[in-house]
Amino acid sequence: MRDEYLKKQARWLSEGQIDRRQFIRAAIAAGLAVPSALTLATSVLAATPKKGGKLRLGSSYGSTTDTLDAGTAEHGMTQAINYARGNQLTEISNEGVLVPELSESFESANGAKTWIFDLRKGVEFHNGKTMTADDVVATFNYHRDENSKSAAKGLLGGITDIKKDGENRVIFELSGGNADFPFIVSDYHIMIMPSTDGKIEDPNSPVGTGAYIIDTFEPGVRTTSKRNPNFFKEGRAHFDECEFITLLDTTARQNAVMNGDVDFIDNVDPKTVALLGRVPTLQIFETTGTQHFTFPMRVNMAPFDNYDLRMALKYAIKRQELVDKILLGHGKAGNDVPVNESMPFFNTELPVHEFDPEKAAEHYKKSGHSGTIQLSASDAAFAGAMDAAQLIAASAKEAGIDIEIVREPSDGYWSNVWNKKAWSACYWGGRPTQDWMYSSAYTNDTEWNDTAWKEGEAADKFNELVVMARSETDEAKRKDQYWEAQRLLQDDGGAVVGMWANFIHAHTKTLVHDEQVAANWQSDGNKVPERWWFA
After folding, report:
1. CA of 334: how far to CAs of 29, 331, 365, 444, in Å?
2. What value does the mean pLDDT take over residues 57-81?
3. What is the C-alpha to C-alpha distance for residues 155 and 160, in angstroms, rounded to an integer?
4. What pLDDT is attached to residue 14?
5. What is the CATH number of domain 210-288+502-534?
6. Mean pLDDT calculated for residue range 452-460
7. In this model, does residue 46 exceed pLDDT 70?
8. Which of 221, 235, 296, 188 is nearest to 48 (CA)?
9. Which of these CATH numbers, 3.30.470.20, 3.40.50.10490, 3.90.76.10, 3.40.50.150, describes 87-200?
């Protein structure tokens, strides 16, 4: 009885029906000691979202080459900005569940070859225009246009037709069944944009339907925004203002949150977790998800066009050492596939690519290569990337392989190095399904295939399996297809997936959130501006 009474009082306090003093009196009358009543009142109020304040986010990402074109967003900073200023048809909730966002509901027909999305009514863009099916159709056509440079183009390759059915319904026709299609349309590149006469007005426009309206956009420096008074989600977007600040340097980012210059930082270096944890005003926030750190070898560039050279390097890396020394245990060793146990149809029977200097030397000899191999890296890729590259070079030397580390500038790394240089450091936030992950980075139709593994018998078979598994409804057959796809990718592909890394953040203790947080991306699914608040 007492517990029910206190729950009722707590609800009234959170809803503002009683004040803090009245709650404490009620709690004491129910038998709680004064200190317990005070603590309970504080926790109830802290868990109650409040409006106001300016959120300052310190990001480890950002480049002077960034744009507001959501299709070209390529890192955590632009993703977070897109999620703050815009919305997709669906989203991954803070509980890790796929839910409608700009759609009210969705359903499939014709063996998942047809998908029908009913849209929310009355949603407004920041310019006052009401969102309709025309905007959705135009947005998707922008990304799937034959000349599109959008990173989502490969994801949408299976769409054969998009049409509207009235002002608030959109119907997608696919070339084959795709049970994961509602996940695909939550991709952060596919932010619904305003259109005119069937065309997107301006892909670089800051206008969206999101929680925050952009005031200023300084690529690679900062972006400022203010709360959208007409945001359609109840109980979200609590800050008056939100500022995104690029802090590429790990030490500068750490000092900023310690000194109170920012309220939240991502990508805390595991080496500084203990230090930041001792700061009385700060809270360490860590989640385990699908983030992985990679070293993609572009198989269309020498010397990585040689199978034995690639295998030599895969066996020349001490992966657990990377986890121990770079992540300080905040993660686990990778095995050259972008899939882990948290994802459906993970192949538990893959051979383990552990450090084996004899196998590495054997493959290296068969490759016929001699001389140094360049590995480009920067801590812009991930915290500790330069140290990880040095460890790789050291372990490879034990197998007789000489690696030269090229220290690349942090600014412009994602535009000038990644997906261009023959071998480089990279991070992936991961995707909730195998199809989405492959379609983002490994199939032959995506702009972000950073290993360029697109041709050859193994690559052709891999692409065929991905398409087959996408529409397969028999779980046993789908498992076999995904298991074989992983085997081909691990063996012949150019990906070195070195480690799976936990997301580690630090924030002021006055910044609070729901009990559950998303782990599909860093920073609560990169939706801290929408979901968090100041106590």
Report:
1. 56, 9, 25, 23
2. 94
3. 13
4. 59
5. 3.40.190.10
6. 97
7. no
8. 235
9. 3.90.76.10
